[in-house]
């Protein structure tokens, strides 16, 4: 249940299209739906403007299907499943039509909406090996409604590849910078723009990179004050935060006097 659905429900009741009992029956699903093995947060769409995101690892195929079917039954306008393998995505898409799978980002979603923001998020990756995490951030931002631009394989070992796009970097509302190895790229990007930079350390690198801890510590110790950092390989979290920054204003708005709910 999101804001649009709730407004329509209350307006239908006010105009007499739905009686009190039917309206109450639909409101009873707030704030969650108990599926036995999971409690689906049906209230999240009202709070965030987007329903609960489903993390696939650790869930059985039957559990994933049940959760997705309930999200659809709740008439949520969007859905997103993260870290889903291609094999499991194919199985789910046979059962539920109209879903789109992005194999490089390991994301399953519905139809991507048209961008609803004036500004754009820019997702930058240091290397091609960082692409799965970068794509996770990119698609997450697009699913949420942000316009997203990308710049891939522009790590500090060949800095000229990055400097060719300085103007585009400076015009972004927010930047997600994904890097493994030593993780220096977010500081470099932050130094050439005055916008929020979200650093995403990846687990890509040789032994001394410690599966992402080295780039994590590098980013946390950045001397650029506009750098913030998410967890290792957390492209989804970075994309979500970047969208909130890019959106700028809350999704919930109060109707003017005389307007419908």
Chart the SSEs and their pairings.
Blueprint: H1 3-14, H2 20-27, E1 33-34, E2 39-40, H3 44-48, E3 54-55, H4 61-73, E4 80-82, H5 86-95, E5 100-102, E6 107-109, E7 120-125, H6 131-144, E8 147-151, H7 160-163, H8 166-171, E9 174-179, H9 185-191, E10 197-201, H10 213-220, E11 227-229, H11 235-247
Helix pairs in contact: 6-11
Tell me about this structure.
38% of the residues lie in helices and 15% in strands. The chain is of the alpha/beta class and 261 residues long. The chain folds into two domains: 3-109, no CATH class; 120-247, Rossmann fold (3-Layer(aba) Sandwich). The chain has a five-stranded parallel β-sheet with strand order 8-7-9-10-11, with helices on both faces. Helix 6 runs parallel beside helix 11. The two termini are 15 Å apart. Mean pLDDT is 85; it is low at 251-261.
Task: Report the CATH architecture of the largest domain.
Answer: 3-Layer(aba) Sandwich
Q: Which CATH first-tier class of the largest domain would you pick?
A: Alpha Beta
Cα(first) to Cα(last) distance is: 15 Å
* Oligomer designation: single chain
**In terms of per-residue confidence, which ranges show pLDDT below 50 for 5 or more consecutive residues?**
251-261
What is the helix tally?
Answer: 11
Structural class: alpha/beta
Number of strands: 11
Calculate the mean pLDDT score and round it: 85
Shape: globular
Radius of gyration over alpha carbons?
Answer: 20 Å
Q: What is the ordering of alpha helices and beta strands? A: HHEEHEHEHEEEHEHHEHEHEH
Please outline the major beta sheet: 5 strands, parallel
Provide the β-strand percentage band. Answer: 15-25%
Stated plainly, the CATH topology of the largest domain is called Rossmann fold
Relative helix content: 25-40%
Number of domains: 2
Strand order of the largest sheet: 8-7-9-10-11
